[in-house]
Amino acid sequence: MPDKFKLINDMAVDNGSKIILLLLDGLGGVPWEPGGKTELEAASTPNMDALTSKASLGLSEVVAPGFSPGSGPGHLSLFGYDPLQNIIGRGVLEAMGIGFELEPQDVAIRCNFCTLDADGNISDRRAGRIPTEECVKRVEVLRTIKIPGVEIFVEPVKEYRFALVLRGEGLNSAIQETDPQRTGVPPLPIQALDPAAEKTAAILRQWWEKANILLANMPPANSCTMRGYAMDPGLPRFPEVYKIKSAAVAVYPMYKGVSRLVGMDVIEHGAETPAEEFEVVKEHWNNHDFFFVHIKKTDSYGEDGNFDAKVCVIEAVDQALPTLLDLQPDALVITGDHSTPSLLKRHSWHRVPVMIWADWARYGKAVKFGETSCGTGTLGLIRHVDIMPLALAHAKRLNKFGA
Amino acid sequence: MPDKFKLINDMAVDNGSKIILLLLDGLGGVPWEPGGKTELEAASTPNMDALTSKASLGLSEVVAPGFSPGSGPGHLSLFGYDPLQNIIGRGVLEAMGIGFELEPQDVAIRCNFCTLDADGNISDRRAGRIPTEECVKRVEVLRTIKIPGVEIFVEPVKEYRFALVLRGEGLNSAIQETDPQRTGVPPLPIQALDPAAEKTAAILRQWWEKANILLANMPPANSCTMRGYAMDPGLPRFPEVYKIKSAAVAVYPMYKGVSRLVGMDVIEHGAETPAEEFEVVKEHWNNHDFFFVHIKKTDSYGEDGNFDAKVCVIEAVDQALPTLLDLQPDALVITGDHSTPSLLKRHSWHRVPVMIWADWARYGKAVKFGETSCGTGTLGLIRHVDIMPLALAHAKRLNKFGA
């Protein structure tokens, strides 16, 4: 099989047409009760519904049937990267999310401040969810730690979370995570899972000992755990593969991280609501041809099991949608990175509704954007990795394949 | 994955049942306006519609989502050959289309007569679309060119197009195309793209110099460009893989070429209309068990953006269909090699409607053959490479897989 990115790159033309990929995190749902509606179906979405007359609807498989995708695979597949071939460690996403410029040999680690009791057992895995300013204070202390032969970066993320990055020769990320995922036991030891990671594990053991001494009198965050050791996999760059100047508008670091990982420009802004995010797109409309817009709260409320609040977020997106439509994109894709049914309170394996709105869409008969209409839509069943080629095709950005 | 052709060949039985594969080139479409119908849906097709009561309907992906197939990949996938693994140069299709018997080591080239101005720049890439008899006259002149160590064939195709075939030892097709795809500039140089093609490039440069001298006083076709350098890839032979005596009925050289490439018998005839082509099938009905019937004009009018004319061609096919039905084939497949929506005026990525009519089809509830009914048909979403196994199965030509 020839490389898919090579094929697409060969067909791609930069014709200046514009694409918006609007992602509602965890969009897909299931009915709250038999005979009922999903969150998307229960929401009043007059603007999206009006789009269906010039759109193709379908359901999309994010990874594989029965697989409930994490945020990393959910986004990578949406961007066209096979999520089974490209498994990205969380440390990389966390570091990139806060704007840290990772270098190819760096090992990035997602750390949590935690509370150790007098016996050295974890009494709180999140250190009482200390506020971000307390996190920053401790990070500054941790920055004083030096280990010969390696450069160390410590960066606050949010609340009890921070990122640790090691830079030097011969580092390796195959190391056991130290969070035991329960309390009343000590953190797991920092152990190499591969002989090639012995050096890195030794450095981290030294660092962790020093960190515990420095944090000893700073309860409740008097220690930390380490997870998601990872290196930048050096993915093909999205703007170059697809020949499109691309930008991401997201509120949360994780989604900025995955966008940066594939080489998109990440627009920094102070927006929080969907309406505010759409204004950011409008401000930057002339600078890019592809906009990835990430809406977080649909997923958050889904995970909380709050059906009505998830409906409200979808409605807020719909109300603000004219801001995007007024920009007259050549193609608009609305979908999710996975389903997060409120009934289930977690990411799920259910296929995700997707709408591609464009002059060249094969319109169907749907009058409402929802899982049921998508299930019989003219786009049919697709896979998330096919969304980008379809979006490019609908914006006339792909030439013919073969003579 | 075991070789698919081997698997199918192992299951295939020659039971004498008969299959017609009726291809309307560029059949798929999109509605001309929101809420409207596609060309196939707008056409009055009482005969095809009547077939739906004993047929399975579905939509077919020709290559991959978002990919707009060229004619080569469109037909190869329809014949069951993975279009991503079997990329066939246009020169081979062109040469085979005019009945030229290519040998395995030949390099075939698709040439266009063009007009060069006094400065050596191309002023017309198609030499004023000279009529075929002018093409023949110049081809006869070009046939006088001799180059030591290689046998050269020059064959007229149609209007300004001709085929050039080199036969000899150590030839290679990795050579840069010389058509700059625009006017006001000279043809691109004949350059090897691979060291193995240096010899071939040198021969072609000599040939082209001599050709320019001979054509100098024959304006407007006073030079030529070269494209689609290719060799016969030696594909598995269709009649042997599927164990079925196969024939192609087509009007245009390209489609005869791709049929010959896979080893079908190509029936020569003077038919032009769908009704006439169907009469050819009738005449040869007893000589073959598989008939590939190619209708060109649906695609031509789609590319012209002529919705109504495309509808007319579909209606003409439908009116003539009883000729084929009276032959009582065991299975009749009606589909396209890609979509060519009149709205888009080009080959497109939209899935192609497909109908398999047979006693053993899983009938559905459709009453009209069209993209919408196919989208919810009992055949579901299939891939073009699966059409042949399905056709064989419906004609009871495939035994059970495994014990």
What separation lies between the terminal Cα atoms of chain A? 19 Å
Regarding quaternary structure, what we see is homodimer
What form of chain A results from the Cα inertia axes?
A: globular
Strand order of the largest sheet of chain A: 9-8-10-1-11-12-2-13
> H/E order of the elements of chain A?
HEHHEHHEEHEEHEHEHEHEHHEEHEHE
Strand content of chain A: 15-25%
Q: Averaging pLDDT over every residue of chain A, what do you get?
A: 95
Roughly what percent helix of chain A? Answer: 25-40%
Kindly report the greatest chain-chain contact and the residue count on each side: A-B, 35 and 41 residues
Describe this structure in words.
The structure is a homodimer of 403-residue chains. Chain A is an alpha/beta fold and 403 residues long. The first copy, chain A, is built from 14 helices and 14 strands. Chain A has helices at residues 4-11, 39-42, 46-51, 71-78, 90-97, 132-142, 198-215, 238-241, 253-261, 274-283, 297-304, 307-325, 371-375, 387-394, and strands at residues 19-24, 55-61, 107-116, 122-124, 151-158, 161-167, 223-230, 246-249, 265-266, 290-295, 331-335, 352-358, 380-383, 400-401. In chain A, the strands form two sheets. An eight-stranded mixed sheet of chain A has the order 9-8-10-1-11-12-2-13, sandwiched between helices. In chain A, strands 3, 4, 5, 6 and 7 form a five-stranded antiparallel sheet that branches. In chain A, helix 4 crosses helix 9, helix 5 packs across helix 9 and helix 10 runs parallel beside helix 12. The model of chain A has no long low-confidence stretch (mean pLDDT 95). The A-B interface holds A 1-2, 4, 7-8, 11, 53-54, 359-365, 376-378, 380-383, 386, 388-393, 398-403 and B 30-31, 34-36, 38, 59, 63-73, 83-85, 87-90, 93, 228, 341, 343-344, 346-351, 371-372, 375-376, 381. Strand 14 of chain A pairs parallel with strand 3 (68-69) of chain B.
